[in-house]
Amino acid sequence: MRHRTQVAIIGAGPAGMFLAHMLAMEGIDALVIERRDRAYVEERVRAGVLEQGTVELMRRLGLSDRLERDGLVHGGTNVVLDGRLFRIDMTALTGGATVTVYGQQEVMRDLFDAAESRGLPIVWNASDVALSGLDGAQPQVAWRQDGVEGRVDCDFVVGCDGYHGVSRAAIPADVLRTFERVYPFGWLGLLADVPPADHELIYANHERGFALASMRSRTRSRYYIQCALDEDVADWSDDRFWDELCLRLGDETAAKVTRGPSFEKSVAPLRSFVAEPMRWGRLFLAGDAAHIVPPTGAKGMNLAVSDVTMLGAALTEHYRERSDAGIDHYSARALARVWKAERFSWWFTSVTHRFPTMDGFDRRIQMAELDYLRGSLAAQRTLAENYVGLPLEAA
Ligand code: APR
Ligand code: PHB
Question: 368 CA to middle of ligand 1, Å?
């Protein structure tokens, strides 16, 4: 194992792997240190909607072959209110933007395959990862792999180790500020090899709770229904799930749902979380290590991508132009975009879910909000520009 690298990246999720490829393309030496093995990281089931900026980054990094072939380009999205569906023409409202449905598992496979063929170094199964010297000139990362100690000196450490990682905890408590909302419900998700109900996504607000019709491909559907946080998956037979889903989607959409045996069913909690700052000394945070969004609007992976796009450019500027301007502005720039994505994900969650504390007033305000969305192109445009992804440098 080498003893020195320029950038040590903790975590081989989307944030860590996109950054590793960006740095490699700029000739910057990086080492990725990951706690689990490739199969574990690749097989985790996550969302699957890529903003245009994420698609463009995959192209720029030469990772888009399968994406161009298998990705489903969507120009619109749909909302069901009171059983009635309306469409938001995102392409028309944004001057041509689209999103692409392509599962995060596929993105990870492309990132790992290319890392292998390009020889990007990744330490798998690294336990006891420890960061030191982050406030000095030469940080170090130490770990243990198969009982053997590993260690690397570096210029910078990037914490891409997700919400439960060690990097954020390395920032002193008197520097770090965190902001959080925990939602009083979860999403019960199901995967099945049946054709999707529609060629686009459908978000439904129903008295009994939220439902979402999504997909992974033309033959694989992904459906979600809002559920209790302590919901036991074992209580949900496929039949019960399909019945509840169809009820919430309304007759018009339910008629297009193809039922079939599920091969994955799980409950995920919903949370909004932001840690500030995203840089301390020679440590940077990116992706879930710094922020979590509820899944409504599918911003999680896209936000990780926008963080590392900014950080990759800042590190390139440091090594190429000997300028630290990008590095010095990273936290503020990244957070400005993060908070807008937090706002959107929180808003989209708030107007589509049933909250246990809701009274008649809250419910009517929620319905008025969606009725306004149905009738106002201005409201639709606001949703559309956030959904397809705000520019990196938002005004
Ligand atoms: N040491 C090394 N690696 C670690 C450690 C640690 N102490 N702790 C966590 N990791 C690894 C995890 O095993 C995981 O592979 O860091 C990686 C973090 O990946 P993600 O949780 O996917 O986070 P991120 O890359 O920021 O992706 C953000 O993608 O997976 C989705 O829900 C996520 O939508 C979000 C987006
Ligand atoms: C998904 O397909 O998993 C998905 C799609 C859209 C969302 C959230 C999740 O808003």
Answer: 38
